[in-house]
Specification:
Distance between the termini: 108 Å
Number of helices: 10
CATH superfamily of one domain: TolB, C-terminal domain
Strand order of the largest sheet: 3-27-26-25
Largest sheet: 4 strands, antiparallel
Length: 492
């Protein structure tokens, strides 16, 4: 009987098409619960397209380092090929090459790009290129005509040993240019609309312990050389959101800094115009990527974000180079889900490099496989997005209804319970909010809901409390007086 069963299985697998055998989801999706344990979930995104330079008819990409998307145009910094490749997504979903730029004309002479690593196009159409190995930033008009270039500023604040190697760039709504430059740890270098150096913005704070400082005072020169210096770490990428705030990522943190919730060195920050971090971190844990991890297949250590992108509803996605995963968080810092990984499968990566979006679709760039992968939302992912959108728009009842649908698809999804509780809180249903928050051990939310419920209950029952107090105050004298009267009557 056992042999017959094995033969039947062999026949089934032998004649079943590969497309059916591997019809399972391409991306392992998961989340973390309150106990910091991974919980599998339905796929929120699925890999829908795999784009290679060879398939576009332009030859293979070589070590692509930069990715920028504006409307339906995709700019790929094909760094080792010293060119910018512009793709356009057609209504039928196909990507076609619209332009390849390998040089610009400056003062009548052609100047070749040399390992460009990033590009930014502002809303007015101006294009900024980090021409890294030429040690310059190029500003071009929408027709790719040269306007001016930015080279190493002459300023005392720039250390002599630092060369001007621009790596990443954004331009805000006031035409201020923010650049992440290699080996600069004082923050983002800021330039005005004319390309003049203005200073630094959003430097990472220096963190150290007093005992370490005292120890260094009594250390020998050799011991000091082996110790970590008390210097701020540099950013590795940046993104301008629709509100003009700049998201930055920092992958040079120590494990202790990374796991310390109160640490000033967070791997993700959201900077305002003053360079202050205003990122909201109200989840179980701050946005850190993987909360539980081990060592396998030569991969170990904490998540190290290499890029970030923000959505219209203020949620954001961060790309982890350590394990090739994309982590998505809502506007409160709650982890929505994570997906992807390291490997050769579709939807997985070898060396994650850059991340951007077109609407809700995500595009992820891999420098080793030289491929661009498009991820589209599944029905499950759309419902989560819709619930967040409805909440942000103030339609709390609609938001709660969508979260109920999410729970039907994934009964273990903590954020759905929290989302229903959050909507109930906004609607003044504090008792209901407390119940849903309690189910998922969301203490901060429960405390707030309890405080408001207590206030609501006091206001609704104040007259009862006053009446009881009056009875307690007036009853003893009344009883005493009545006893006295009855006693006098009996004696009379």
């Amino acid at each position: 009987m056992k042999k017959l069963f094995i033969i039947v299985l062999f026949i089934i697998f032998s004649f079943t098409p590969n497309s059916l055998l591997f019809a399972a989801p391409t991306n392992y999706t998961y989340n973390y619960d309150y106990w910091v344990e991974q919980v599998a979930s339905p796929d929120a995104y699925h890999a829908s397209q795999y784009i290679l330079g060879a398939s576009l008819g332009i030859g293979p990409f070589r070590d692509p380092q930069g990715l920028f998307i504006r409307d339906n145009r995709i700019y790929v910094c094909d760094s080792a090929n010293n060119r910018i490749v512009v793709l356009e997504r057609q209504p039928n979903g196909e990507h076609v090459v619209s332009k390849i730029v390998g040089s610009v004309v400056i003062d009548g002479e052609e100047s070749n790009l040399f390992y460009p690593m990033d590009l930014f196009q502002c809303r007015e159409g101006f294009i900024y290129i980090c021409d890294t190995n030429n040690k310059r930033i190029l500003k071009l008009d929408k027709d790719w005509n040269y306007i001016f270039s930015i080279t190493r500023p002459v300023d005392e604040s720039i250390d002599e040993f630092i060369e001007f190697d621009p790596l990443k760039i954004v331009v805000d709504f006031a035409d201020r240019i923010f650049v992440q430059v290699r080996n600069v740890n004082k923050g983002l270098m800021e330039f005005d609309s004319l390309g003049d150096f203005s200073g630094y913005m959003g430097a990472n704070k220096v963190t150290f312990k007093l005992i370490d400082y005292v120890w260094r005072l009594f250390s020998t020169q050799e011991q000091r050389a082996r110790q970590n210096l008390f210097i701020p770490t540099e950013y590795n990428n940046l993104y301008l959101d629709n509100d003009g705030f700049i998201y930055v990522t920092n992958s040079a943190l120590t494990t202790i800094e990374y796991l310390n919730k109160d640490s000033s060195g967070q791997p993700i920050r959201r900077l305002n115009a003053m360079g202050q971090d205003i990122l909201v971190r109200n989840g179980y844990k701050p946005p850190l990527g993987d909360l539980a991890y081990g060592s396998a297949a030569g991969v170990s250590g904490i998540s190290r974000f290499i890029d970030i992108v923000a959505f219209d509803n203020d949620s954001y996605a961060a790309f982890d180079r350590t394990r090739g995963r994309i982590f998505v968080y809502d506007f409160q810092g709650n982890m929505l889900y994570a997906f992807g990984g390291l490997g050769n499968r579709e939807g997985y990566f070898q060396v994650p490099t850059a991340l951007d979006r077109m609407g809700t679709a995500l595009y992820a760039l891999d420098s080793r496989s030289a491929a661009l992968t498009r991820f589209d939302l599944t029905v499950y992912g759309e419902k989560i997005n819709n619930a967040l959108d409805e909440y942000k728009a103030g339609r709390y009842e609609d938001s709660a209804e969508i979260w109920e649908d999410v729970l039907k698809m994934n009964g273990n999804y903590d954020l759905a319970y929290i989302g229903i509780g959050r909507a109930a809180l906004r609607q003044g249903q504090y008792r209901k909010a407390m119940e849903y928050y309690k189910l998922k051990h969301f203490r901060e939310g429960y405390g707030k809901a309890f405080q408001l419920y207590r206030k609501q209950w006091m206001e609704a029952n104040l007259w009862k409390i006053v009446l009881i107090l009056l009875v307690l105050i007036l009853l003893p004298p009344a009883v005493k007086y009545s006893i006295k009267i009855i006693k006098e009557i009996r004696e009379a």
